[in-house]
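Researcher: Structure for this, please.
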Amino acid sequence: MSADLRIFESAPEAVDAAAKLWAECAHEAARARGTFRIALSGGRTPKALFFLLAKPAFADLPWDRTEFFWGDERYAPISHGESNFRGANDLLLTPVGAVADRIHKMPTAGTDPVKDAQRYEESLRRHFGEALDPDGFPVLDFALQGLGADGHTASLFPEKPALQENVRWVVAARAPGSATIRDRLTLTVPVLRRARRIVFLATGREKAEAVREWLEGTEPPERCPAKLITPLGGSRTVLLDREAADLLKNR
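Model: Predicted structure, C-alpha cell format:
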C-alpha cells in the first residue's frame, strides 16, 4: 500500500514530525479558509504530541481559529482516565487557550451510544452546514490517526459492522472484549478518508506486527481496518519510529 512513509530513529522524533505537519496544515488552512478543522485521536503517542504542541515553540499556531473534533471516543464520562477528550483537554486545549465553542467533544456521559452517535453527527451537520464535498460528507483539514495492535484505527475494529458504513458520519462501535471500556463512538471510514491530510502516528515495538500487516501484509481490510483509510483527494503520511517499523521489508 503506497504512502508517504517516514521512519525516525526515536519516538520523540516521530512526534516532532507530526507537530510540524500539524503546524504546516494549520497555517495553510487558516490562510485559505479562515479555520483549521482537525480530528484528534487518543492513546499514548498522541499525548506526547499534545504536550509538545502546547510548548511556546508552537504558540503562533492559529489556536483561536482551530475547530477540534474527535475521531473516536470511549463511552465514559470525561472524568475517566481513558477519556480521549480529557487527555487532549489537559495537555493541549487548556494550555493553549482553545476557544470553548470550537471544541466539539463527543457526547459520552449518557446511556445510549447509538443515540449519542446520532447527536454528534447532527452537531457536525450543523457545524459544516452546506460546506460538504459532492457526496455530502464533511472535509476535515487534518485527521490524526493511531494504530492498534490488531490493526484498528479510530474505533474501527476488525470485522465489525462499522467498517461497512458508507452513509453515516458517526456510529456507535464495540471494542473487543479485552478493552476496559468497550462502547465507543467513532467517525466512519468515508469521513476519515476525505480529510485533506491524514496523518498516522505509531511508535513502539508492540505496534510492529500491525504496521507490517497494514503496509505490507495480505489480510483483507476487514481484518486490518487501517487499510481502509486511504485518501480521497487528500494525502496520507505515515510517521513511525524505528521500533514500530522494525518488521517492514520495504523501508
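Researcher: Any notable elements?
Model: The chain has one domain: 4-188+206-229. Residues 4-188+206-229 form a domain with the Rossmann fold fold (CATH 3.40.50.1360).
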